[in-house]
Amino acid sequence: MNILQKLSVANTFHKSRRTVYLTALTIFMCFLMFSGTTVVMGLHNGLKQLQNRLGADIIVIPKKEAQKHSFEGILYSGKTGYFYFNKNIFNEISDMEGINNITAQYYLASVGADCCFTEVQLIGFDPDTDFIVKPWLQKNYNRQLLKGEVLSGSDVFIPDNGILKIYNNDLKSVGILERTGTGLDSTVFVDMETLKTLLRSSIDLGLNDYNVSPDDVVSSVMIKVKDGYSKFKLTKEINKRFKEVKAIENQDMIKGFAGKLDTAAIVVKIVVAVIWIMSLLVMHIYFSMSLNERKKEFAVLKVLGFTNKSIYAMILYELLIIFSVSFVLGLLMSSVWGLQLKTYLETRLEVPFMYESFSSYILHGGVAVAVSLLLSLIFLSGSFIRTVRMSLFSVLREVD
Amino acid sequence: MIKHNIFSIAIIILEAVLLAGMYTFWAPCPVGEHIMGCHWVANVSVAVSAVIIILCILNLITKNSSTRKGINTGILAVTVLQGLTPQVLISICKHEHMRCHVYTQPAIITVASLVLILIIADLFVNRNK
Amino acid sequence: MHLTVTGLNMFFENQIKSITNERTAILNDINFELKQGCITQIIGPSGCGKSTFLNILCGLLKPKSGDIFYGNQSIYSLSDSQLATLRNQKFGISLQKNIGIGSIPVIDNVNLPYSYMHNGKTDTCDNSHHLLELFGISHLKNNLPGELSGGEMRRMCLARALVNNPEFIFADEPTSDLDCENTDIVMTVLKNRARNGAGILIVSHDSAVYPYADETFTINNGILKQIN
Question: Do A300 and C108 touch (CB under 8 A)?
Answer without folding.
Answer: no
